[in-house]
Design brief:
Elements: H1 12-20, E1 26-34, E2 41-48, E3 53-55, E4 62-78, E5 81-94, E6 98-101, H2 115-125, H3 130-137, H4 141-156, E7 166-173, E8 180-186, E9 194-199, H5 204-215, E10 225-228, H6 232-241, E11 246-249, H7 251-270, H8 279-284, H9 294-306, H10 309-324, H11 329-347, H12 354-365, H13 367-371, H14 380-396, H15 403-414, H16 417-422
Parallel strand pairs: 2-5, 7-10, 10-11
Antiparallel strand pairs: 1-2, 3-4, 4-5, 5-6, 7-8, 8-9
Helix pairs in contact: 3-4, 4-15, 5-6, 7-10, 7-12, 10-11, 11-12, 14-15
Length: 424
């Protein structure tokens, strides 16, 4: 195999230029290794050829240099050494558009990093928490977040939502007890389903989504089904901004409402009398032998034997599985009606079971939207997957400072932005 040498026309400077992504009229004019710093720094100085003309950034017309400004960019490490590129970047005087700073081919406008450095940073962020990636790249997490946000925003502009017909939405806190964000997904997409993320959890989020959908080739009039929870704000927003969409209350949120009611009853009863040590997870998990430990089974047996209010609330929650097994919409409606009558009789007027009464009232109010799921083509698993997405985004954005960074990470790992950025 023939090795190309300097005698063949390939010089060491040419190899460095290839590694940086520099093309004529730019050329390497100096290089030196600074060993007085830790880690050592390789400095590469780049300049344009004498008398070179540069394209006007507005129209592309080759123009002479007007003046120069010294700029520096962090590049990928050269072995174990940090690498920096320094260049005198000209402003050109265009006859039509006046004086403007030219854009260099190795870095995007306004960035202090080369394109190759940013590509490597994005690749790391897709695989590890941002804070860990920042430490690996030896930059601050603030600067790395700035890179990630830029490219994610750029990728979002390329979304094509022209085929969106069914959506799911849910909200989550960006941090415990802090601001909420609402996430919209395409129910027909198995991979990267996230379409839109916005702060808040009210009716206005639907207005914002409808505008976003229209601006990316979609049509709010063509959305035919929305899967969501029982939030009055969401339902009102869907009716106003997605007028042709049928609303399906997903089963996951029904179970969630009753599970929370059981936990509330448990906490209230625990203030009045001692409860079994392992009771909390015993009542929160599905009441099947394979899902419960021996201690949890014993805790359930104890409260059932004592006839506690928590046991009554747990029985009502577990009975939902019987409703879920209905095969048709008609059967589901009959089972829900039967279930409500049975549960109300069981609850009676017991004050401690007020949280369960509220859960039953919620189900009764939304019965038409709940039975809609029996004719829906969308499964519960899509909405249940939200929780996994939220947890992954929080883990990857560990150390994030605000809602915007949390939203950025949701886009990066859950939306088409991830695939778009792989092609950069």
């Amino acid at each position: 195999m023939h090795r190309q040498t300097e005698s063949d026309g390939m010089h060491s400077d040419d190899i460095l230029l290839l590694g940086i992504g520099i093309q004529p009229p730019w050329q390497l004019v100096d290089q030196h290794l600074d060993t007085s710093t830790q880690p050592h720094e390789l400095h590469l100085e780049v300049a344009g050829e004498r008398g070179a003309r540069y394209p006007c950034p507005t129209c592309g017309t080759p123009c002479p240099a007007h003046d120069f400004q010294q700029k520096r960019w962090r590049h990928l490490n050269f072995f174990q050494h940090h690498c920096y590129i320094t260049a005198s970047v000209p402003r050109v005087k265009c006859p039509e558009h006046g004086v403007h700073r030219v854009e260099v081919p190795w870095a995007r406008k306004g960035s202090a990093f080369t394109l190759l450095f940013e590509q490597a940073a994005l690749a790391l962020v897709r695989e590890m928490p941002v804070l860990a990636a920042a430490r690996f790249m030896d930059i601050t997490d603030t600067r790395l977040w700035r890179i990630v946000k830029h490219y994610v925003k750029q990728a979002i502009t390329q979304f094509d939502l022209s085929t969106v017909r069914g959506i799911g939405l849910d909200e989550t806190a960006s941090k415990r007890g802090h601001n909420y964000v609402t996430i919209f997904i395409d129910m027909d997409r198995r991979q990267e389903p996230v379409l839109f993320v916005t702060p808040g959890r009210g009716k206005e989020t639907l207005q914002q989504f409808a505008a976003f959908l229209a601006s990316h080739g979609g049509d709010p009039q063509q959305v035919l089904e929305v899967v969501c929870d029982m939030s009055p704000a969401f339902i009102s927003g869907v009716n106003e901004h997605l007028p042709n969409a049928a609303i399906t209350v997903d089963w996951f949120h029904i179970v969630q409402v009753f599970t929370r009611s059981v936990d509330t009853v448990r906490k209230l009863e625990g203030k009045e009398k001692p409860l079994p040590t392992h009771l909390r997870w015993a009542v929160l998990k599905r009441g099947q032998v394979g899902h419960l430990t021996d201690n949890q089974l014993l805790a359930l047996a104890e409260i059932i034997e004592q006839g506690l209010d928590t046991a009554t609330a747990w029985r009502i929650k577990e009975k939902l599985a019987w409703v879920r097994r209905a095969r048709t919409q008609r059967a589901a409606r009959w089972r829900i009606t039967h279930y409500l009558n049975w549960a109300r009789h069981l609850v009676g007027e017991t004050p401690a079971l007020e949280p369960v009464r509220k859960a039953l009232a919620t189900l009764s109010t939304h019965i038409d939207r709940v039975v809609q799921r029996w004719t829906s083509t969308y499964t519960n698993a899509r909405l249940e997957g939200f929780n996994g997405l939220f947890q992954a985004a929080r883990a990857r954005a560990r150390g994030y400072r605000n809602t915007e960074t949390f939203m950025t990470m949701i886009y990066l790992i859950g939306s088409p932005a991830g695939s778009i950025l792989k092609s950069i």
